[in-house]
Design brief:
GO terms for molecular function: galacturan 1,4-alpha-galacturonidase activity; polygalacturonase activity. This protein is mainly beta. The protein has one domain. Helices cover about 10% and strands about 45% of the residues. It has one helix and nine strands. The termini are far apart.
């Protein structure tokens, strides 16, 4: 999923949930406000459990939950990322980005691997 936002406000009151693609935002002068009730549900547990026993030589193919790509003067506000499959978020080739009230939880609950390094 990719959004190109210009002078926009997005009120996100639910969760995005997609295991196949990254949520990529590009553009300028935008605010994404999840109002502490929305964000991304990454279904990470199934990814984490699978990749404990299946590895790939060229990386494991897990998506980054939220990517800001070539964004300018953007704000991500009151945003929740729960169980990201890989990294929770990244800002690449972006300037003037503000994260205000970001919550991330990536707790491994698989009894075979929980608490192990």
């Amino acid at each position: 999923m990719s959004w190109n936002l210009t002078s926009a406000t997005v009120n996100l009151k639910g969760y995005l949930s997609n295991q196949a693609s990254w949520f990529v935002v590009t553009g300028s002068d935008f605010v994404i406000d999840a109002q502490n009730t929305g964000g991304i549900q990454g279904n990470g547990q199934s990814w984490w459990s699978y990749f404990q026993t299946h590895t790939k030589a060229d990386g494991d193919g897990r998506p980054i939950a939220l990517t800001l790509w070539k964004a300018t003067r953007g704000t991500i506000k009151n945003f929740r990322i729960v169980s990201p499959p890989f990294w929770a978020n990244t800002a690449a080739e972006s300037t003037g980005i503000i994260y205000d009230g970001m919550y991330v939880n990536a707790t491994n609950a698989d009894p075979l691997y929980a608490g192990k390094k």
